[in-house]
C-alpha cells in the first residue's frame, strides 16, 4: 500500500471514528430528552431538544418534539406554533421513535399544530389543520376519527361562546396559599374551616393543609410525610368537617383513590377505597357530598360511554357500594373528570372534553331535576373557560363561587396561583 493510500485510510478511519462518537453523543442526549418527555417533565426535555436542534436544524422531528414541549409549558405555548409549523413540512407515516436519526416528524404533528392554533385563538387555522390530520387516520380508527371530528366542530363553537363572555370577579388567595412555585388543586371543606392544596416543590408535589382559627387561616402545613406520600398523591376533596381528605395516586400506569383521616393531632397514612371504587382501570378523582354518604368519581372502566366517565356510589353498611354511571346526560364519548357534588347532591360541577366546548377540557355545571335526571350541562363560559384545558374548579357557597388555579403571564406570585372566583 502506498504512503498516500495509507494516509487516506488513516484520515478516513479517524473521520468515521469521530463521526460515530459524535452521533453516539447526540443519541444519548436524545434519549435523555425522550426520558423527560415520557415523564411529562417538559421543561427539562426542552433543554435537551433545543441543544440537539441547534446542531441538527434540518431535523423536523426535533422541531416536533420542541413544539410539544412548548405546548405543555404555561406562558410559552405561543412558542409552539413556529416549531410545529416547521415539523409539518416533513412528515412520515413510517416514523421511528427512539432515534435522533429520525428526520421526518410523525403525522401527529398536524394534531399538535391544530391544538396549538386553537390554544392561541387561531380557530380557522386550527380547523384547517385538524381536517388535514383527520385525512391521515385509518377508516377503522373510529375512536380517533370521532375525537378529531369533535375537535374540528369545537373550532366553530369556541368562537360562538367567546362572543358571549360571562361576568365574574377573581381574587388572588394571597401569599399564604401562593408563592413562586405552582400552587394548584385547591379544596375547601363545606363548613369553610379547612383548606388544602398542592404545591410543586423541588423534588415532589406536596400536600398542604390549613385551618381557619379565630377568623384567620393558619400557616399551611406540609402533611405529605404524615399521609406517607412520595409526592404522587393529588388532592381531590375534603369532607364537610375537614377531617377526611380524599386523594388520587397516579403512578403513570394506574390511578386509584385513597383517603386519610385527621385524629385531632395528625393525619393517618392513606387507605385505598374499596373495589367498588378502585379497579384495575383509571380512577382519577372523587368528591364526597356534605352528608358524607355519597361520592362521585371519574373512571375509565368498561361499560361507560367512552374515555373517563363519572360514577356515583352511596354508603352501604359503612362502606362504599356499587358504582352507578351518571348516564348520557353527563357522560360523552370523550373524557369527563374532576366532579364536585354540592348542595346535598343537587348541583354537579365537572370538567369535560365533550358537550358545547371552547377547547380541551371545559368546566360545566348540571342540576339534578325532579325526574332524578341531570339537566343538560351548561358551559361555565368564557373567559373562565379558555381554548386551553380548564379542569379543576372547587365550587363553594352553593356554586356561587369557587376556587381554581390560574397561570397569569404577569402579576401573581408564581407559575400557578390559587384564586377565588365569584360568578355573577
Can you characterise this structure?
The protein is of the alpha+beta class. It folds into two domains: 160 residues, Tetratricopeptide repeat domain (Serine Threonine Protein Phosphatase 5, Tetratricopeptide repeat); 255 residues, Neuraminidase (6 Propeller), CATH 2.120.10.30. The chain is built from eight helices and 22 strands. A hairpin with a 4-residue loop joins strand 8 and strand 9. About 4% of the residues have low confidence.
* Rg of Cα set: 25 Å
Q: What is the assigned CATH homologous superfamily of the largest domain?
A: TolB, C-terminal domain
Assign the CATH architecture of the largest domain. 6 Propeller
CATH classification class of the largest domain: Mainly Beta
**Derived structural class:** alpha+beta
Separation of the first and last Cα atoms: 90 Å
Count of structural domains: 2
Poorly predicted spans:
5-19
Percentage of residues in strands = 25-35%
Topology-level CATH name of the largest domain: Neuraminidase
- Summed up, the helix count is 8
What's the total number of strands?
A: 22
Roughly how much helix do the residues carry, as a percent range?
25-40%
The major β-sheet equals: 5 strands, antiparallel
- The whole-number mean of residue pLDDT values reads 93
Shape summary: globular
Query: H/E series, N to C?
Result: HHHHHHHEEEEEEHEEEEEEEEEEEEEEEE
Amino acid at each position: 500500500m502506498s504512503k498516500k493510500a495509507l494516509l487516506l485510510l488513516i484520515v478516513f478511519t479517524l473521520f468515521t471514528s469521530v463521526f460515530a462518537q459524535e452521533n453516539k453523543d447526540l443519541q444519548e442526549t436524545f434519549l435523555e430528552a425522550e426520558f423527560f418527555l415520557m415523564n411529562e417533565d417538559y421543561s427539562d426535555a426542552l433543554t435537551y431538544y433545543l441543544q440537539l436542534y441547534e446542531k441538527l436544524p434540518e431535523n423536523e422531528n426535533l422541531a416536533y418534539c420542541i413544539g410539544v414541549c412548548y405546548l405543555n409549558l404555561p406562558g410559552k405555548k405561543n412558542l409552539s406554533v413556529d416549531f410545529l409549523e416547521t415539523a409539518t413540512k416533513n412528515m412520515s407515516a413510517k416514523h421511528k421513535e427512539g432515534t435522533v436519526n429520525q428526520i421526518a416528524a410523525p403525522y401527529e404533528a398536524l394534531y399538535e399544530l391544530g391544538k396549538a392554533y386553537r390554544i392561541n385563538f387561531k380557530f380557522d387555522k386550527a380547523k384547517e389543520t385538524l381536517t388535514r390530520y383527520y385525512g391521515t387516520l385509518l377508516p377503522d380508527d373510529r375512536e380517533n376519527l370521532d375525537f378529531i371530528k369533535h375537535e374540528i366542530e369545537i373550532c366553530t363553537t369556541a368562537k360562538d361562546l367567546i362572543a358571549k363572555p360571562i361576568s365574574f370577579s377573581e381574587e388572588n388567595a394571597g401569599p399564604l396559599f401562593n408563592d413562586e412555585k405552582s400552587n394548584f388543586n385547591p379544596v375547601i371543606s363545606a363548613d369553610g374551616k379547612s383548606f388544602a392544596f398542592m404545591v410543586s416543590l423541588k423534588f415532589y408535589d406536596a400536600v398542604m393543609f390549613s385551618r381557619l382559627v379565630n377568623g384567620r387561616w393558619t400557616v399551611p402545613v406540609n402533611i405529605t410525610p404524615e399521609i406517607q406520600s412520595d409526592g404522587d398523591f393529588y388532592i381531590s376533596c375534603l369532607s364537610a368537617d375537614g377531617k377526611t381528605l380524599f386523594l388520587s395516586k397516579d403512578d403513570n400506569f394506574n390511578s386509584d383513590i385513597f383517603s386519610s383521616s385527621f385524629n385531632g393531632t395528625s393525619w393517618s397514612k392513606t387507605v385505598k377505597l374499596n373495589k367498588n371504587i378502585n379497579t384495575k382501570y383509571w380512577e382519577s378523582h372523587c368528591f364526597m357530598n356534605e352528608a358524607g354518604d355519597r361520592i362521585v368519581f371519574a373512571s375509565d372502566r368498561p361499560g361507560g360511554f367512552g374515555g373517563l366517565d363519572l360514577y356515583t356510589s352511596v354508603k352501604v353498611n359503612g362502606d362504599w357500594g356499587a358504582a352507578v354511571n351518571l348516564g348520557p346526560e353527563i357522560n360523552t364519548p370523550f373524557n369527563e373528570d374532576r366532579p364536585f357534588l354540592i348542595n346535598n347532591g343537587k348541583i354537579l360541577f365537572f370538567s369535560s372534553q365533550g358537550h358545547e366546548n371552547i377547547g380541551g377540557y371545559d368546566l360545566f355545571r348540571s342540576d339534578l331535576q325532579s325526574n332524578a335526571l341531570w339537566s343538560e350541562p351548561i358551559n361555565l363560559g368564557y373567559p373562565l373557560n379558555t381554548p386551553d384545558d380548564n379542569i379543576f374548579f372547587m365550587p363553594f357557597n352553593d356554586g356561587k363561587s369557587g376556587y381554581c388555579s390560574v397561570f397569569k403571564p404577569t402579576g401573581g406570585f408564581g407559575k400557578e396561583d390559587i384564586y377565588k372566583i365569584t360568578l355573577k
